[in-house]
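#struct-pred
JK: can someone run the complex with BES? inputs below
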Amino acid sequence: MSQPIITQLSYFSQVEKKGTLVLLIDNSGEISSSLELEGLDKDLMKSLIELRNFKGERFKYLEICALAKNSYDRVIFLGVGNSSEFFSDDWIKLGGVCRGALVDTLQVTLIMQLKERELCDDEIEDFICGFKLRNYNFDKYCTNKVSKKEPLKIVFQTKTIERVKKSLERAEKLADAVMMTRDFVNEPANILGTEEFCIKIQELKTLGVEINVFDDQKLEKNGFAALLSVSRASRRPARLVMMQWKGSSFENQTIAFVGKGVIFDSGGISLKPSASMEEMKGDMAGAAAVVGTIFSLASRKAKVNVVGVVGLVENMPGGNALRPGDILTSLSGKTIEVINTDAEGRLVLADLLWFTKEHFKPLLMIDIATLTGAIRVALGQHYAGLFSNDDVLVERLCAAGTRTGERLWRMPLGKEYDCIVDSKIADMRNCTGRDAGSVTAAQFLKRFVGDTPWAHLDIAGTAIASIKNDYNESWGSGFGVRLLDSFAHYYEDNM
Ligand code: BES
Ligand code: MG
Ligand code: ZN
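RT: done, structure tokens with the ligand placed:
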């Protein structure tokens, strides 16, 4: 059967029969005695759990079929392990495991109760978020699958529906934001060019987000020479898009998210090898994460002032392309000797960071970018690289990473690395030797942030060609949205 889509979350306090029933089982292996399971024999279920030697291990599940007439088609016992200790993204994973366990089912009843207690708001939010994220599938171009999609109905059984409804709404908004980002990243560059992406971003206006766009003429007039150098040989015009969400009355407290939006990175004249070049359609994952984050903050009406700034360009070779050897005068006035046209992300971000700092004078700036292949060599696909000039910022970002499972690992910055970026004939060069490639890239960016507290997230290992996990089966993981949304909590009013 085809992959069902969730079209309806409905909330009932009564158990609806048929379909699949999901029960949470902790490591005692026992079913809560307070649970009313009409039509089901609890003793029989208990013996079956024992017989199959299921101990309620976290992330494992046991499925049993056709227990009684006129009852559920099957029951899934979802293991939660030790119910007094949950960490990090455990509940998101549990939601994902639950969705993964449902095959050939169009209706599921979830009973969100542990043996001793009901789940708290955050646990429910995480669970549903994980459930929805696991359900995501980018198969819109598989013509044979699309037409067969059927709705999956989830019935949520709980005693305290009103309280739980809020968590469900929050989960849906956050999951929608992540899925929007995944869609952007998965979409190929022939469909999502710079202009198309820009038009999509404008849809955030309906949520009350202020949008401003600089087209290539305006960029030229304003001196964005580094950013424009990257898109020179592309048929797709460059765009800079600013998204402002003003949710707080403290006017001066703006935090800024800056995203690399290279819709396709061929490498330019320093052309990449063909193997895996198609992956470079995802070189706008940083920009996509910024858009998803602003979407999430605006849709939950977060009491915070944020601005998202993304630079949308395509890096192509051609008669008009940027050459190795060229010297650019960036927006900041600093000059850059281009050594390698494939080190284009830092050229885009140099102008974006400088502009954001000067124009918005933000409290802090965080840029997010698929910047270097070297970060994947260093950290693999489990942690994104974090570079920063501010220890408090690092602490808050790492905490948000632990909470959401979008983990960050701090990498070094320092004078020893900074001087590697110097050029003999300009202020700096855009490409250095092989050593510490992610660090020297970050050092390059640091030259454009002044004294502003700043962090740089290198997501080249975590945002694209993702390894599957309990709540992500998508090529583009949507990395960064849950992280930055969670991080923004520190800056919300009445915190
Ligand atoms: N977009 C790439 C980085 C990248 C590589 C992202 C693999 C995702 C997966 C970036 O523009 C790039 O080409 N970086 C070069 C830098 C080098 C020329 C200094 C790299 O990593 O090889
Ligand atoms: Mg490149
Ligand atoms: Zn790139």
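RT: quick notes.
The mean pLDDT is 93.
Residues 193 and 311 are 12 Å apart (CA to CA).
JK: thanks, will look after standup
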